[in-house]
């Protein structure tokens, strides 16, 4: 049932071109400008008139929520807050009828996320679920929702669920921006085409596998790693670090690249690998400066870059090239090499990648 792969995690990483396409199928058709999310139909009014969007989730799903914050604010100009469900539920949050709450969960069973939903619901907010497991507890508790349709995710480390979550959230953001008039039609159509092209670009990104194995061999024995990115790629840095720590047990931290000089830079020496997500986007030049700062302190730089990049290539120790896309969708492509990297490092270290120690697929206790 692993379909010829050694582990479910690797199978699920490789399924992403298909799982993202499955998620978009029947919902998005760029040519006709069609974008329909069945779950939103009855709640479009609430969504469109919401004064604020609150996103609540845990772990990797929370990282997808952070990407969504950038998407919703850029395209729909609605204020967004992204909350760890465990914090939200216990801090007597300010939430009410004008809030549209999006709860993201692969399993649909996470105890803290469920409790956060119950709380927001009791205060009159509208609750929308973005879940993978059909018929699980969260979709039964929310007012409405959209399934991610990624198929069963068995590896404990979330991979294809993450990219499917971002795909649903991206469709929601484009729809909302279009409906609210903050996203002009021509730009909207262009973005629909970009999103539709993502499965093919993820397929391309998977071809970095051999190069990544080589990098994994070189860094498999490190004790620490830093992951840095800006803008849409900041949550990708967090996700890259989480993937590495949870399956390889290497200590890793993700940061917005600019925060480096406020502390983490002290960690950098010749032993320290720093993984940059440095795709061509509006913060590219700034990221290049951050890479130079790391190199000046003799850190090792491994960078995910856009195909054809020359600037980062000239200074980094290793680059991993992924296809160009609109920066808003870069996380869907850029996360793939980081998933592969964690996978290979964990396998080389003899770790149980599908069932890392101390972790469970569904966290049904708080
Ligand atoms: C990381 C991971 C966890 C989950 C988190 C939330 O790879 O799998 O961080 O993302 O426990 O789980 P769900 O999405 O099922 O609510």
UniProtKB/TrEMBL annotation:
<feature type="domain" description="SIS">
    <location>
        <begin position="43"/>
        <end position="182"/>
    </location>
</feature>
<comment type="function">
    <text>Catalyzes the first step in hexosamine metabolism, converting fructose-6P into glucosamine-6P using glutamine as a nitrogen source.</text>
</comment>
<dbReference type="GO" id="GO:0006047">
    <property type="term" value="P:UDP-N-acetylglucosamine metabolic process"/>
</dbReference>
<keyword id="KW-0315">Glutamine amidotransferase</keyword>
<feature type="domain" description="SIS">
    <location>
        <begin position="215"/>
        <end position="356"/>
    </location>
</feature>
<dbReference type="GO" id="GO:0006002">
    <property type="term" value="P:fructose 6-phosphate metabolic process"/>
</dbReference>
<dbReference type="GO" id="GO:0097367">
    <property type="term" value="F:carbohydrate derivative binding"/>
</dbReference>
<dbReference type="GO" id="GO:0005975">
    <property type="term" value="P:carbohydrate metabolic process"/>
</dbReference>
<comment type="subunit">
    <text>Homodimer.</text>
</comment>
<keyword id="KW-0808">Transferase</keyword>
<dbReference type="GO" id="GO:0004360">
    <property type="term" value="F:glutamine-fructose-6-phosphate transaminase (isomerizing) activity"/>
</dbReference>
<protein>
    <recommendedName>
        <fullName>Glutamine--fructose-6-phosphate aminotransferase [isomerizing]</fullName>
        <ecNumber>2.6.1.16</ecNumber>
    </recommendedName>
</protein>
<keyword id="KW-0963">Cytoplasm</keyword>
<keyword id="KW-0032">Aminotransferase</keyword>
<dbReference type="GO" id="GO:0005829">
    <property type="term" value="C:cytosol"/>
</dbReference>
<dbReference type="GO" id="GO:0006487">
    <property type="term" value="P:protein N-linked glycosylation"/>
</dbReference>
<feature type="active site" description="For Fru-6P isomerization activity">
    <location>
        <position position="361"/>
    </location>
</feature>
<dbReference type="GO" id="GO:0046349">
    <property type="term" value="P:amino sugar biosynthetic process"/>
</dbReference>
<keyword id="KW-0677">Repeat</keyword>
């Amino acid at each position: 049932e692993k379909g010829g792969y050694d582990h479910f995690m690797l199978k699920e990483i490789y399924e992403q071109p298909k799982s993202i396409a499955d998620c978009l199928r029947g919902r998005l058709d760029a040519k006709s400008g069609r974008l329909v999310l069945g779950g939103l139909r009855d709640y479009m009014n609430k969504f469109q008139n919401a004064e604020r969007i609150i996103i609540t989730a845990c772990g990797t799903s929370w990282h997808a929520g952070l990407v969504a914050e950038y998407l919703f604010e850029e395209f729909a100009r609605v204020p967004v807050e992204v909350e760890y469900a465990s914090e939200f539920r216990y801090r007597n949050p300010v939430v009410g009828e004008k809030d549209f709450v999006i709860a993201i969960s692969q399993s649909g069973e996470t105890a803290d996320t469920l409790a956060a939903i119950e709380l927001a619901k009791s205060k009159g907010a509208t609750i929308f679920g973005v879940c993978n497991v059909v018929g699980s507890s969260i979709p039964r508790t929310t007012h409405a929702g959209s399934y991610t349709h990624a198929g069963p995710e068995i590896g404990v480390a979330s991979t294809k669920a993450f990219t499917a979550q971002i795909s649903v959230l991206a469709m929601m953001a484009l729809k909302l921006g279009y409906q609210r008039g903050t996203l002009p039609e021509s730009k909207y159509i262009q973005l629909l085409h970009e999103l539709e092209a993502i499965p093919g670009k993820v397929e391309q990104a998977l071809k970095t596998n051999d190069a990544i194995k080589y990098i994994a061999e070189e860094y498999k024995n490190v004790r620490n790693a830093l992951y840095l990115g800006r803008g849409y790629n900041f949550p990708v840095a967090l996700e890259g670090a989480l993937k590495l720590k949870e399956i390889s047990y290497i200590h890793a931290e993700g940061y917005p690249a600019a925060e480096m000089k406020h502390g983490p830079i002290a960690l950098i020496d010749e032993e320290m690998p720093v993984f940059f997500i440095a795709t061509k986007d509006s913060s590219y030049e700034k990221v290049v400066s951050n890479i130079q700062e790391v190199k000046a302190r003799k850190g090792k730089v491994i960078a995910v870059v856009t195909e054809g990049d020359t600037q980062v290539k000239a200074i980094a120790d290793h680059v991993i090239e992924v296809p160009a896309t609109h920066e808003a969708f870069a996380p869907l492509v850029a996360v793939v090499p980081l998933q592969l990297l964690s996978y290979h490092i964990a396998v080389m270290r003899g770790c149980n990648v599908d069932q890392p120690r101390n972790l469970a697929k569904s966290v049904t206790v708080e």
